[in-house]
Design a protein that fits this description.
Elements (H helix, E strand, L loop, with lengths): L7 E6 L8 H10 L8 H6 L9 E7 L2 E10 L8 E9 L8 H13 L5 E4 L4 H9 L3 E2 L8 E4 L8
Parallel strand pairs: 4-5
Antiparallel strand pairs: 1-2, 2-3, 3-4, 5-7, 6-7
Keywords: Acyltransferase, Transferase
Pfam family, one: Acetyltransf_1
GO molecular function, one term: acyltransferase activity, transferring groups other than amino-acyl groups
C-alpha cells in the first residue's frame, strides 16, 4: 500500500527495543539538518521516556515508521513538575497529513496529570504554529526553550 494513502496509526511504544525503522527515520532527520537526533539514543538508553507522564510515540503508515515524538521530564530545568516535548520528527514524504498534530495530541494526553508546565524548542515556524494552536506561547528568556505552556490553560486538550 502507498504510504501517502494508508491510514496512520499512532502508538505509544512500550517495547524495550526501539521500533523497527527508527534508525532510518533518525538518519533522515540527520540528513535534513535535525542535529537533536544525536541526543535521542542516549536519552532512550537512560530510560527518559519510561516514567509517569513520559512516552515515546511513533506513527506507522503502510507498514513503515513515519514519525516519532516524545514527552518526558525536562532535562534542562530542575523543576520536577516541568515536562518537555522532544524529538518530534515526521518523514519528509509523510508531512502535511496531520501526523505531527496527532503526535502532539498523544504527548499532551500522556502529560495530563503529571506536568504543570511543558516546554519545547523549535526553529521551524510551521511547527511553532502547530504548538501555538495547542496553547503554547513563545518563551522569552527561557533557557533551551522557544515555547512554554502551563497545563491548565491549554487551548486544545485531547
Amino acid at each position: 500500500m502507498d504510504q501517502s494513502s494508508s491510514p496512520i496509526e499512532i502508538v505509544r511504544w512500550g517495547d524495550p527495543d526501539l521500533p523497527p525503522g527508527l534508525d532510518a527515520l533518525l538518519q533522515e532527520a540527520v540528513e535534513t539538518d535535525h542535529e537533536w537526533v544525536a541526543d535521542f539514543r542516549p536519552a532512550w538508553e537512560a530510560g527518559a521516556f519510561a516514567g509517569d507522564g513520559e512516552a515515546l510515540f511513533v506513527a506507522f503508515g503502510g507498514g513503515a515508521l513515519l514519525a516519532m515524538a516524545t514527552i518526558s521530564a525536562d532535562p534542562f530545568v530542575e523543576d520536577k513538575a516541568t515536562g518537555r516535548l522532544r524529538f518530534i520528527y515526521v518523514r519528509v514524504a509523510a508531512r502535511r497529513r496531520g501526523i505531527a498534530e496527532g503526535l502532539v495530541a498523544a504527548c499532551l494526553g500522556r502529560a495530563r496529570g503529571t506536568w504543570r508546565r511543558l516546554r519545547l524548542h523549535t526553529d521551524n515556524p510551521v511547527a511553532a504554529q502547530l504548538y501555538e494552536r495547542y496553547g503554547f506561547r513563545p518563551a522569552a528568556g527561557e533557557w533551551r526553550a522557544t515555547h512554554i505552556a502551563d497545563i491548565a490553560p491549554l487551548a486544545r486538550w485531547p
